[in-house]
Design goal:
The complex is a heterodimer.
Chain A (H helix, E strand, L loop, with lengths): L1 E6 L4 E8 L3 E9 L1 H4 L7 H22 L9 E7 L3 H18 L3 E5 H5 L21 E6 L4 E8 L2 E6 L6 H11 L6 H9 L24 H15 L7 H30 L3 E5 L6 H10 L4 E3 L3 H4 L4 H12 L18
Helix pairs in contact in A: 2-3, 5-6, 5-7, 6-8, 7-8, 8-9
Chain B lengths: L1 E5 L2 H13 L6 E5 L6 H11 L14 E5 L3 E6 L6 H6 L2 H4 L5 E5 L13 E7 L5 E7 L6 H8 L7
Parallel strand pairs in B: 2-5, 2-6, 4-5
Antiparallel strand pairs in B: 1-7, 3-4, 6-7
Helix pairs in contact in B: 1-2, 1-5
Classes of the chains: A alpha/beta, B alpha/beta.
Chain lengths: 342, 158
């Protein structure tokens, strides 16, 4: 079964074709990062306009790379939420148009559930990186807009174990980077600087570790960084390059430590022995390395960076299972900005 | 103008709840204060006071989030925006005049563009969790309800 996936929930425009929920035939992603970087983040109105401009060329390229004609597709899958409303609508309207004109089933997909499906995708020309990975598993979902811990029981069943209380992990990276004058997107910049800095330089808090739950909070950590820098700058003009690197390293260490300690807690709570780390922040090299170190005895899957970012292959992949259980949508499908995963 | 010393996150939340009690809908509340000052904390209190059960998370990434309580609450974040055109581009007009309460973080760059009479809340960090919170409005009469619910607290929290 060949499924066309469409993903436009935030600032990546992506179309993909996936065979039988596994094999990626094409996965084309147009990132808008360069257009948004002047603002230090995604601007919704701008994102929708860029999606409209990019979506048809991306669709054509995805079909071409898969060596298929649109009529050979068996079903059309699309992210229907959560995300930015103007962005989501570009995808859902295109999917509806294709479904209607070619009389193909329309499959709505929840964006976070799709991220959690990435361990099961096989990249073109590459063998599966975790062929034995299976349900149930714990997912640490970390990106600019989300940080949560989710128990994936099957492709169709999820339970939220811990959620964002204030700032998402990726947002904390962006805000601290902007505060330190480092630019956007903050994640990769801080990740790279961290490699040259001393993580023991500042003892930043690990927010919420004493709380009796798996919820994630990064607002207090952000405040601690601001306070530390202000104290540090008293009497001196600016932070030295070394100071900046050390602060970046100490901040990143605090984020990673918090995420992984909460993950450990969630693993205990759920009793599962498999873990997937997904979402844009899963590209963070420090997080990837530390996760491997801390969880040597469980099956750990972190997708390749291309499958960590928003992409349509994960949408088309998960949709295969939704098709099997008949979870189709009528042509009245609407985007839902708060679509829950449970 | 009110000046209130908050000694903890809990007190800032409480102040937000109290302000919410005096709201009728359609009000604009502009929040200013540096990164980490506690603007979102105040809005969390405001939401609680409006009977919103959901967790209020930072709207920075998506620029705006809407919650349904006793009144609609539009939580807007202008942290990343630079000019008045940007304000138009996020569709600010869609929120204004809709009858909901609008809480705007990082409003300082756009004070001249906000429709009066908005309430201005300035949060200044002190030691640890302490914050000096100033509440001001160009037209005090328009905020009589909120002012009344604050009045007995003017001398701080007991």
């Amino acid at each position: 079964m060949l499924i066309l996936g469409i993903e436009t929930s935030c600032d990546e425009t992506s179309c993909a074709v996936v065979e039988n929920g596994r094999r990626i035939l094409s996965n084309i992603i147009a990132s808008q990062v360069a257009s948004h970087s002047a603002y230090g983040g995604v601007v919704p109105e701008l994102a929708s306009r860029l999606h409209i401009r990019n979506i048809i060329p991306i669709l054509k390229q995805a079909l071409k790379e898969a060596n298929l004609h649109l009529s050979q597709i068996d079903a059309v899958a699309v992210t229907s939420g959560p995300g930015l409303v103007g962005s989501l609508l570009v995808g859902t309207e295109l999917a509806k148009a294709i479904a209607w004109s070619l009389e193909k089933p329309l499959v709505p997909v929840q964006h976070i559930a799709a991220h959690l499906y990435s361990p099961f995708l096989e990249e073109k020309g590459k063998p599966s990186t975790s062929p034995d990975f299976d349900y149930p598993f714990l997912g640490l979902v970390v990106s600019g807009g989300h940080s949560s811990l989710i128990l994936a029981q099957s492709p169709l069943s999820y339970k939220v174990i811990g959620r964002t209380l204030d700032d998402a992990a990726g947002e904390a990276f962006d805000k601290v980077a902007k505060f330190l004058g480092l630019g956007y997107p903050g994640g990769p910049i801080i990740d790279n600087l961290s490699r040259q800095g001393d993580a023991r330089y500042a003892a930043f808090p690990r927010p919420g570790l004493r709380d009796d739950n798996c919820d994630l909070s990064f607002s207090g950590l952000k405040t601690a960084v601001v306070r530390f820098v202000k104290d540090k700058m008293k009497g001196s003009v600016a932070l030295s390059e070394t100071d900046t690197k050390n602060i970046a390293a100490s901040f990143q260490a605090a984020v990673i430590d918090t995420l992984l300690q909460k993950t450990e807690r969630a693993l205990k709570e759920t009793g599962v022995s498999r873990l997937a780390i997904v979402g844009g922040v899963a590209c963070n090299k420090g997080l990837r390395e530390e996760a491997v170190k801390r969880f040597p005895h469980i099956a750990l899957h972190i997708p390749s960076p291309i499958l960590c970012t928003d992409n349509a292959a994960m949408i088309a992949g998960l949709a295969f299972h939704l098709v099997q259980s008949g979870r189709f949508a009528p042509l009245t499908l609407n985007a839902d900005v708060n679509l829950p995963i449970e | 103008m009110f000046e209130i010393q908050s000694n903890s996150i809990e007190e800032t939340l409480q102040l937000g709840r109290r302000v919410a009690e005096g709201l009728k809908g359609g009000e604009v509340i502009a929040l200013t204060g540096e990164l980490g000052a506690g603007k979102t904390v105040f809005v969390k209190g405001l939401a609680k006071g409006l009977g919103i059960e959901e967790t209020i998370t930072s709207p920075t990434f998506v620029l705006a989030r809407t919650y349904q309580g006793r009144l609609l609450l539009h939580h807007i974040d202008l942290y990343r925006l630079e000019t008045c055109n940007d304000l138009d581009s996020i569709g600010i007009d869609d929120y204004l005049g809709g009858g909901g309460v609008i809480a705007i973080e990082w409003a300082e760059k756009f004070m001249g563009d906000l429709p009066p009479p908005f309430l201005h809340i300035i949060i200044e960090p002190g030691e640890d969790e302490r914050r000096l919170i100033q509440i001001a409005a160009a037209d005090g009469a328009a905020w009589e309800g909120v002012y009344n619910s604050l009045r007995w607290r003017q001398n701080g929290f007991s």
